């Protein structure tokens, strides 16, 4: 692929931003003509008080049903079972309040509630026939980006092997996203660190992806810039509204970027690990990111130099190659400052299943193809061997 290759840039979601932008939820639901909505969330959000704040914005003439049992790494059984429970309830819209697992679950439900089959029938691009229910996404982490993209990640178990599958579609772009940092004032610093590093991973992997374009570069590189200056202050204090607002917006900006640029093998390997170990996506990505940057930078030193500039690394007097390496070193150190462990073994990943992980990641074309440097099985093995 070169700068003149044919691409398409796809964006659908109307995005409200700013402190108190949650007040738009009521008017948006009225505009859609919703009479009964399904609120999709998890126990953490329920107990944090965020759900109560969101519920306070729903007009009285709209009935609210609540599904608050979303677990990390949602699987086929949980989606199908939930859809069966709500299929006859005549739901007119979904409202997702949560992180990536919640928003992806809501996307999957939006399809399965209007189409008859299991979510596993809709892997790939636009495989469903009936229009999905409208979805409003209210992210409560600073990393998923799912609120502005057209994909849902679902854990599938076939023949005893767990893998992550992707469902893509025009209807998976949420109708509306609301990015209100005032909802995140009590967010734990560890969650800001892990989801924020996930956003940085999206931005960097998207920027150096083989499928990137001028459109996606504009989004992904700007996200690197905003995350670079906002991440540590946000981790330091979740009531730093400027930093949290920056993180929330950057996460969505690169969410739209990555929906069009694709990602790379941090996500390829992390999805293999996430499915096998039910491990938290953000932390796995954050641990893997420096190892993959070290591997990938030679594919595009110029872009890595631009990443260094976006991260405000002093590259004066350095060659392009030295500046690219400075970007890698900076991210490695940022991971440490964010309190992320250096090795996957710190979160319970062992070398016992390394061959299975290599096999799954090697066959994941969605991430293998756009990764800027080709990877063999041995290359993936080496990355896992070093990072575990
Ligand atoms: Fe991610």
From TrEMBL:
Keywords from the UniProt entry: NAD, Oxidoreductase
SUPFAM superfamilies linked: Dehydroquinate synthase-like (SSF56796)
Domain Fe-containing alcohol dehydrogenase-like C-terminal: 193-387
Record InterPro entries: ADH_Fe/GldA, ADH_Fe_C, ADH_Fe_CS, Alcohol_dehydrogenase_Fe
Top-rank taxon: Bacteria
Domain (Alcohol dehydrogenase iron-type/glycerol dehydrogenase GldA): residue spans on this chain: 13-180
Listed CDD domains: Fe-ADH
Matches recorded under Pfam families: ADH_Fe_C (PF25137), Fe-ADH (PF00465)
Family, as annotated: Belongs to the iron-containing alcohol dehydrogenase family.
Classification via PANTHER family: ALCOHOL DEHYDROGENASE, ALCOHOL DEHYDROGENASE 4
Protein name: Iron-containing alcohol dehydrogenase
